[in-house]
Design brief:
By secondary structure, this protein is an alpha+beta fold. It is built from 3 helices and 5 strands; from the N terminus they run H-H-E-E-E-H-E-E. The structure holds copper (II) ion. Copper (II) ion (CU) binds next to strand 3.
């Protein structure tokens, strides 16, 4: 019991004393934080410099709404494993040609490319 207590006290006290004596509080932590922030910023900028490569995925769902003039289709789709998406209702860009044979309420299977918030249907078929 007693030995354990002494050991614990020593373990806590020595690093604390060391830190107070050898590491000035005002320089090291700040420098370190600044470095992390710069690195994060670089990482965020990197994808912008690359050519826009959208991810392609397939999903199945139900057509909720179509807008031939805007070229959009709203689909309540199931989970998209490839992108880590849960099931949701969302709008996709689509060419009127792709929507011509479809109507609201249709069950569809489709393929799309996703770039940020933009998802464009590349193939869509009635199930
Ligand atoms: Cu979605």
């Amino acid at each position: 019991m007693n030995i354990k207590h002494i050991t614990l006290a020593t373990l806590f006290l020595i690093p604390a004393a060391y830190a107070a004596d050898k590491m000035p509080m005002d320089s090291m932590p700040m420098d370190h934080k600044g470095m992390d922030m710069q690195m994060d910023h670089q990482n965020m900028d990197m994808p912008m410099g690359q050519k826009p490569a959208g991810q392609t995925a397939t999903a199945a769902g139900t057509i909720k709404k179509m807008d031939m003039e805007k070229g959009t289709v709203t689909i309540a789709h199931g989970p998209v494993k490839a992108l880590g998406w849960p099931s949701m209702t969302m709008g996709f860009k689509a060419k009127p040609d792709q929507l011509r044979t479809l109507k609201e309420g249709d069950q569809v299977e489709f393929e799309f490319s996703s770039k940020g918030m933009d998802s464009t249907i590349t193939r869509i078929e009635k199930q």
